[in-house]
Amino acid sequence: MGRIRKFVDFDWAGADASVHRAMALEPGNPEYLDQAAYSAAMFSRSDEALAVAHRAVELDPLNPGCWSALGEIKYFESQFAGAEADVKKSLELSPDVFPGPNLLSKIYVMEGRQQDALAEIERVRTDATRAWLYAVTYAAQGREKESDAALKELIAKYSTRAAYSVAAVYALRNRRDEAFQWLDRAYAQREGNLAFANLDPMLKNLRSDPRYPAFLKKRNLPN
Q1: Does residue 120 lie in a domain region?
Q2: Which of 48, 198, 209, 222 is positioned for an S-S bond with 40, CB 3.0–4.6 A?
Q3: Element of type H or E holding 73
């Protein structure tokens, strides 16, 4: 119910309540703890998010998904070194863990390690995600021509389901008008990635823009 409320209804408070109900019924379930960690992060309860994600790892230390969730929470909190270590641990436990190379590539970009990101992108299995990651990585390197080519591919082939990714590229390049246009399109397409729009470090260039809190408010996202 929490997932439906979050990703279908965009009812973030309702999703948070559902996850806490699940935790009350089965407090030792690592999957519920991971979902609770994401909810806490969304509502800027950073200490709670990290504590709950750590608890999930303690309960199931061989679960790659728990390590990945902990790494993603740290990524959202801009704790990139810790996030990198946790995601690498998840990949040691299972090379197929999601988001795996996708998340590690993003961490490298935010750490300024674009060459490492480019190498990691080769392990990403979906074409749309690779195109997006190439666009943001080349943008972070200042390789505008290559970034434009990857962005053009992303828009031409995947814009009907990856508008949020297009917005992230424009945000990273500090092209705010285009970024907000594509965020609006992502909302119209009901894309699940919007659940983390208030947390995503790739949107950091938008946070000082008055349109950013207005966007969050209109979509009922916590600011």
Answers
A1: no
A2: 48
A3: helix 64-76
Q: What is the largest CA-CA distance in the chain?
A: 53
Token pair recorded at residue 195: 């659940």
Predicted confidence (pLDDT) per residue in 104-132, tens digit? 999 999 999 999 999 999 999 899 999 99
Phi then psi for residue 29, to 5 deg, are -90, 115
**Tokens 């285009």 belong to residue:** 178
In this structure, is residue 179 part of a structural domain?
Answer: yes
Looking at residue 8, its pLDDT comes to 86
At 78-95, the pLDDT tens digits run 999 999 999 999 999 999
How many folded domains does the chain comprise?
2
| Domain housing 213 | 161-223
Which pTM does this prediction carry?
Answer: 0.91
Q: What is the CATH number of the domain that holds 61?
A: 1.25.40.10
Please state, in angstroms and rounded to a whole number, the distance separating the CA atoms of residues 196 and 75: 12
Q: Which residues of 48-69 are buried (b: 16+ CB within 10 A; e: fewer)?
A: ebbebbbbbbeebeebbbbbbb
